[in-house]
Inverse folding.
């Protein structure tokens, strides 16, 4: 096990992956001709003349996104219907041939400018499946077309933090399917936007395996390299619109991607963190009949705690209305979610506590966890895979959440941990956990105590912690 663990901790995130995970929570915006037809998937025959969001306001989108404490926005610049939200030079199936601003509009520019002005990141979704373009299914001619459009998006709209590909691959208008040249697409992204993560059907960010918001108990970022094979992702991705796909849970066979047992015989390992993506409504695009079906606040809180607080990122979709605005029900729910996040994690009670630990490497003491950064962190000497951390206050505190973060620059190491509280003059277990990774939020049944004990029960080579928060 010792040799295996040493091999596992050699796998660490790239700079772009680390910066992406630090965003934690960001938005998806599905907007196209489907918004006006009531469909989830268009077939490419829709006329650009139907696209006219007369009240479109990118600032309203960004304000709502920021109110929820999101730090980025990914726009569906082109969905499977092939309609482009920017005036692409390579097709007439675009906003330039719509009534919106008399054909002078550019939704991508307005949104990217609003994001930049507000200090949040901007990302692009570009569907490789194009049900409008006659070259789809022809091989290189369509790849040339796709790369030309990708190049437009990556050169005309400033810095891009995410290029989001899915593997949807149905038939085009000619009845043919396209074999996507993923490596060519990746090369274009790396050349034009070297800091952008290529997500889902890409080498940087992994799809969690469902669109319902379900998460794994143990989300590992160190996984077999074969997990990244785009053919597998494309094979599991959606080929036709159906609600059962959107609501499916993670299969039992996919629950464990990175335990020692799974990785023991794997020769090629990669850092491949998970993203949890779901919509604030049942559908990804706007439907009037779903105005009263916005996810309950409690449900969104649970997804947030289990994704951002479970070593993944959280991508939440908000679909604009035909007018081009987020619906008031969605806006209200986003602010409620942001209010929860701001209130729940407003004051770190650790600031007023004393810290002690059973063992630490010289220069890496437990007081390093008071500041949330990777410049200083706690760790033990190699070979010491357990640790006991005691947190003590002069007076009793009401505690609801404990947050822990590893220094993932040193890989993901913690296998299991336990949180105990001094209740009635004895310590009782209040939380049992497995992985920590980038961040673990441990929700507790609210308790009052003056002593918390965190036990690192098992880790790879030696545990690291860059931050502990008590709220």
């Amino acid at each position: 096990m010792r040799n295996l663990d040493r091999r596992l901790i050699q796998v660490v995130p790239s700079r772009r992956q680390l910066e992406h995970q630090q965003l934690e929570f960001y938005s998806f915006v599905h907007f196209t001709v489907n918004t006006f037809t009531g469909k989830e998937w268009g077939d490419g025959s829709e006329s650009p003349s139907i696209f006219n969001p007369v009240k479109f306001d990118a600032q309203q989108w960004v304000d709502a996104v920021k109110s929820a404490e999101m730090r980025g926005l990914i726009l569906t610049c082109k969905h499977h219907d092939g309609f482009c939200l920017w005036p692409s030079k390579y097709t007439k199936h675009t906003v330039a041939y719509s009534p919106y601003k008399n054909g002078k509009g550019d939704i991508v520019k307005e949104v990217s400018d609003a994001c930049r002005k507000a200090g949040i990141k901007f990302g692009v979704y570009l569907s490789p499946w194009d049900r409008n373009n006659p070259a789809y299914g022809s091989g290189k001619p369509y790849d040339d077309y796709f790369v030309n459009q990708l190049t437009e998006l990556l050169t005309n709209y400033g810095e891009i933090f995410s290029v989001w590909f899915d593997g949807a691959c149905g038939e085009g208008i000619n009845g043919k399917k396209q074999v996507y040249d993923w490596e060519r697409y990746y090369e274009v992204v790396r050349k034009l936007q070297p800091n952008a993560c290529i997500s889902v059907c890409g080498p940087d960010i992994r799809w969690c395996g469902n669109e319902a918001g379900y998460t794994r108990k143990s989300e590992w970022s160190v996984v077999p390299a074969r997990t990244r094979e785009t053919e597998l992702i494309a094979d599991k991705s959606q080929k036709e619109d159906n609600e059962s796909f959107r609501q499916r849970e993670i299969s039992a066979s996919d629950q464990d991607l990175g335990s020692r047992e799974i990785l023991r015989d794997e020769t090629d390992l990669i850092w491949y963190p998970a993203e949890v993506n779901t919509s604030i409504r049942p559908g990804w695009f706007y439907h009037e009949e779903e105005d009263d079906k916005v996810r309950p606040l409690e449900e969104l809180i649970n997804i947030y705690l289990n994704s951002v607080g479970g070593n993944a990122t959280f991508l939440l979709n908000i679909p604009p209305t035909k007018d081009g605005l987020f619906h008031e029900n969605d806006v209200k729910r986003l602010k409620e979610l942001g209010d929860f996040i701001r209130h729940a994690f407003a004051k770190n009670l650790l600031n007023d506590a004393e810290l002690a630990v059973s063992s630490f490497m010289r220069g890496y003491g437990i007081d390093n966890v008071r500041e949330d950064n990777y410049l200083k962190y706690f760790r033990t000497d190699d070979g010491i895979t357990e640790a006991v951390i005691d947190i003590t206050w002069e007076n009793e505190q009401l505690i609801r959440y404990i947050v822990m973060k590893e220094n993932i620059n040193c890989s993901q190491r913690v296998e299991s941990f336990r949180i105990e509280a001094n209740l009635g003059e004895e310590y009782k277990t209040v939380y049992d956990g497995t992985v920590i990774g980038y961040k673990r939020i441990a929700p507790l049944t609210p308790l009052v105590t003056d002593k918390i004990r965190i036990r690192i029960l098992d880790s790879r080579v030696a545990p690291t912690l860059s931050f502990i928060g008590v709220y």
